[in-house]
Design a protein that fits this description.
3 helices; binds adenosine monophosphate; globular; single chain; alpha+beta; HIT family, subunit A; 117 residues; binds zinc ion
Length: 117
């Protein structure tokens, strides 16, 4: 399912203001907020206001909003004064996706190793 918002989706509830979040940025198409279980000094999630299950579905249906996520990731990094950072789109449960509303993880503020776990 895709489109505006989904009643049973955690991140749609954050978009609608029904669940609190530490919001760092908002645009017409996106919201960025701090991850509740941060894995790095900066760990921000950038999400579209519209609901798609993952980044690929968002990109297929709304490519300009998918690009907005990447621009917002850079702005979050700039605002947290990160020289380098990592953007992660977990896609599918096997890759660790637990919330099926597209989101970019923006991670930085510590050394990030490669390959990731
Ligand atoms: P993923 O595992 O890629 O689907 O990422 C989902 C992320 O959402 C995880 O890093 C969680 O820590 C984070 N998360 C879950 N609930 C909340 C919440 N209420 N506020 C902020 N982040 C959350
Ligand atoms: Zn949603």
């Amino acid at each position: 399912m895709a489109g505006e918002t989904q009643g049973d989706c955690l991140f749609c509830k954050i978009v609608e203001g029904h669940i609190p979040a530490t919001i760092v940025r908002e645009t017409e198409t996106t919201i960025a907020f701090r991850d509740i279980n941060p894995q790095a000094p900066t760990h921000v999630l950038v999400i579209p206001r519209v609901h798609y299950a993952n980044a690929a579905e968002l990109a297929a249906a709304e490519p300009t909003i998918a690009a907005d996520l990447l621009r917002e990731a850079q702005t979050v990094a700039d605002e947290d004064k990160l020289e380098s950072y990592r953007v992660v789109f977990n896609t599918g449960a096997g890759a660790g996706q637990t919330v099926f509303h597209a989101h970019a993880h923006v991670l930085g503020g510590r050394g990030l190793h490669w390959p990731p776990g």
